[in-house]
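Researcher: Following up on the earlier apo prediction. This time include the ligand. It's pyridoxal-5'-phosphate, with the SMILES given after the sequence.
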Amino acid sequence: MDFETKVIHGGIQNDPATGAVVPAIYQTSTYRQQELGGDAPYEYTRGENPTRFAVESVMAALENGKHGFAFSSGMAAVHAVMTLLHSGDHLIMGNDVYGGTFRLVNSILNELGITYTAVDTADTDAIEAAMQENTKMVYLETPSNPLLHVTDIAAATKVAHAHNALAVVDNTFASPYNQTPLDLGADIVMASGTKYLGGHSDTISGFVVTSDDAVADQIKLIQLSIGAVLSPQESFLIQRSLKTLALRVERHNENAMALAEWLNNHEKVQKVYYPGLPGTPDYEIAKEQMRGFGGMMSIELQDGLDTKKFVENLHVFQLAESLGGVESLIEVPAVMTHASIPREVRLENGIKDELVRISVGIENIEDLKQDLAQGLDAL
Ligand SMILES: Cc1ncc(COP(=O)(O)O)c(C=O)c1O
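Model: Understood. Below is the ligand-bound prediction.
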């Protein structure tokens, strides 16, 4: 099945008990047992829930993996993956990963004795140079947040595997419609389902998918033991949203490409970060490993223009954190999504105070252009 069919028919899409064409919401915490000490398939919803199993199976199908796991947030999914690491282990990750991921590694895991090196993962030599004897994981975010840098997943994975480290990809920005990292050799793909997978800015969720049985056993144990599972209601909502993922992402891709080209030629815009614009190494890799370039971009206005005034004066684009919903959002990473990264680290990694990040929605493209045009004209 191709992707557009898999979102409708992949994994468990009917209710096995009744044949209902839509999976039922099994809103239960526990299950009646037929015998004491028997081997019941369902015991307690933290461990087993049919609605969660259904969305997990669809996500596994969409990412071309064997095992899917649903969590209560993207951060819970990141945490589950990083719980594969132990005290004394070393992690290599991108130097412009999502601020919450950086905070987890820098403030929580570091305290537990897990060290890290943050590098530009688009530079495969930098990954190689950062390798230590105890490096157990290479964590990639591509395209990255907020600079939309693209890492060559196959090349980075090769380096990781040469050192017996796991290659993990945060696929939040691309979504499995645009990119399937397991096909490029990655061991684990994870995502914040809050973004494109949910797609309507109304749920928080996270997913992990792998084809490695041993890794899957460990993630299952972590999911059960830590308990940050996705609820039956939210599982249902995500599965419902996934059915339109292909349609939505196709439009996100189209709108973002058109806006990126238009902004790139606008006199008040100094720089556009979008992997679909030719002329950068990001573009060269993206066109090889992605089906579409995605709905995310960042821009820098010309020096001296008032970023605050610009983002506050838009009408269609809403000033808000998050991304991947049907509605267009705009934000300033330095003040909002990436405020948890110390300023000097942020600047060193190229995230300027004035950088503006845009999540392009699926509205009419002319309305989106007009809104940005009036915002820029007012400066
Ligand atoms: C790339 C990326 N990974 C992970 C997360 C964390 O996801 P959540 O907010 O669902 O916990 C985010 C959130 O913005 C993100 O952008």
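Model: DSSP finds 14 helices and twelve strands in the chain.
Researcher: Noted. I'll compare it with the apo version next.
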